[in-house]
Amino acid sequence: MAKYSVHQQPVDTLLSWIKSGEIAIPEIQRPFVWKPKKVRDLIDSLYQGYPVGYIITWRNPDVKLKNGELSAGKKVLIDGQQRITALTAAIVGQRVLNKNYKEISIRIAFNPLSERFEVLNKAYEKSPEWINNINPIVNDEISITKAIRKYLELNPEANEDLVEDRIENLKRIKNKQVGIIELDSTLDIDTVTEIFIRINQKGVVLSNADFVMSKIASDGHYGGNKLRKLVDYFCRLIVDKDFHKHILDNDKDFVSTDYYKALSWMAQGHDDLYVPNYMDVLRVAFTNRFSRGKFSDLVALLSGRNFELRTYESEIAEHSYKKLSDGLLDVVNKNYYQRFLMIVKSAGFISNKLIASKNALNFSYALYLKLRNEGMGENETQFYVKKWLVMSLLIGRYSGSSESTIDEDIKQINEKGIQEYLTQMERTHLGDGFWDFGIISDLESTSVNNNAYNVYLAAQCNAQSVAFLSKSMKISSLIEQRGDLHHIFPKKYLSDNGFILRQYNQVANYVYTEQATNIKVGKMPPNVYLDLVKKEIDNQEIKISTIDSYEILKENLVANDIPQELMNYTHENFKDFLVERRRMMAFKIRRYYESL
């Protein structure tokens, strides 16, 4: 079976297909990234008869309508949008969005005498040798006879035959061929992705979420194009509040919809703890409402796939778009979104620096929405969401290729219920072997982007622990203020005594402390600087530390999971110290998890 067909079509035919909807162009409100000079080069290549690359389309499957008839699937453009946008801008005169989301025109000027194309500027506009805009000629808005006559009036000394020949050649741009690779409707997403990567040599990586976005963006029948905007605009507003003005000024149709009302609060909302991109938003909505994890399933369902009969039916497509709409409205709901963030913060994850896995957050948000939609009480929902988030981070549940894991987890929760499945996960992954050996091994790392270490910091924030050698400064405050991590055994001291980076930069040697304290400690060994702290307590001075009693000093070491013996330690004790501190950190993480 042929996986695809390759054929050539005139530019004119290609543009007519787009106009008629035979090729569905995703309605993506994103900037046109090509520079105008690249548009010029494309037009010049067509004029010269050079190849301009291929566009890739993927035909949707034929769908069975309610009356039993078959509706032929449209071709969805999956690669070549910038090229087609360039053609419609230069030839049809369609305006494009620039990087500031302003609509602009790209006008290509042509000099018949030199056969050069340039992006129109004032110099070319004033020169009679240049046709200011090729669009009216190529697009049949002006007859070729009139165009030639007008040019010769402005350039009476020009060779009439040469001008006539070259303007006619300009007109023939619409007849030049563009390569089209049409992928078969029976191909699955993974095969389409593989073909795309092999054809596309620019190193562009397609994700299955890109196919979902193209699928919904090219749909006008079930409102998919509006769903696409809901996703795009929400993600953009999270990071760019000024973008709200663009929506109000340039998309009044969308502003009149309930989708806009659902997301407009984000124009004033602010939080950088969870900043989902379009893939994350789709992931949460799909996992929650469909109880599935594979985007290939979502594309199939939106196409109307009946998995049992292996047919495509319009009723399934309509139902799937409705479910996706409900799921996306859940995701952008102000109350749900903010309550979820409150749950995450209350577990001690006060900064996005403490959450290395975006998919752990995605799944936890989907779980929150699912349990809430099922009518579970708020307190019980919070309990399970916190537990699941921390458990999944500790065991690296969604690291690497996560789709299959997400798919398995949501289906198991759907089948067994969250209580039974969480218990099963804990027995499988969080037994005594994990707490006594696994987590301690995970802490033997120099990476601060380490799940075990980040959960340890969340446990400290959750416990409102104070910073090392500080009487009242909270670790949470230092993390929020982007405070620096410092070494309990100063790295210069250890380096001078023969230790290497992967030894002194282990996370078990890190601690949050105030910068002034760190500077005063300098490169002193622990037994020396802690002896000075004790003398300050005796003399009621505040130099290195703000701690003013031996009892508070001991409590401070306990709060930071540091052995009391540190007061006597030199570099000779460093390796033993690391072993003991890892054990103490692991114990804190376990107590923290069990207390959630």
TrEMBL record:
Residues 13-216 form the GmrSD restriction endonucleases N-terminal domain. Pfam families: GmrSD_N. InterPro entries: GmrSD_N. PANTHER family: DUF262 DOMAIN-CONTAINING PROTEIN, VNG6097C. This is GmrSD restriction endonucleases N-terminal domain-containing protein. It comes from Nonlabens arenilitoris. The lineage of its organism: Bacteria, Pseudomonadati, Bacteroidota, Flavobacteriia, Flavobacteriales.
